[in-house]
Amino acid sequence: MGKAASDDIEIQFDGKKCIHARKCVLGLPDVFDPSAGRQWMFPENASAEEIVRVVEACPSGALTYELKSADAKEAAPKVNTARLWENGPVEYHGELEIDGEEPRLRAVLCRCGKSKNKPFCDNAHLKADFVATGDIATKEDAEALEVRDGPLAIKPIKDGPLMVSGNLEIVAGSGRRVATGKRFAMCRCGASKNKPFCDGSHKDIGFEAD
Ligand code: FES
Known about the structure:
By secondary structure, this protein is mainly beta. 10% of the residues lie in helices and 28% in strands.
């Protein structure tokens, strides 16, 4: 875990979770500068407010922060979402309880089946030429849930899908709501013909994952 601190804020970076979405380097290039070498975060170059805004936009949750002078910390979203990336992973935002992991608010999880850091994405879909739309048709019953936040439990089933339990909106890459519900089996083998949902194809391809 890399860290850098100013008088107001400490930024933490978990490189294993980073998938180079580049929200940080584009949002605050004077603070996040990978060309600088091993020490690449410079929180003294922006206000704590600006850094909070950019860190909370990091989809993988590789970046987190701690404010020094306030108790305020990152709040869970009002609406839990699973956003489908075109030809890529699924971005989850909510009070995430991923089996075996520390609680977190942001995560990008593999759905091509090739990541070596499952259930997290490690960009293996790029080499695998994974094809999956981020723009599926809206389900007929995709109405807003009465309660839209709260804990979201994500449990990888051995050699099978991710079981996601809790109030959830599945959204297209554009943000369009495509499905809502409280329990989904999400494909993570890459072979489903009904992506992003599991259709049992993991058995046909002999998918293996803890
Ligand atoms: S996990 Fe992909 S079809 Fe079930």
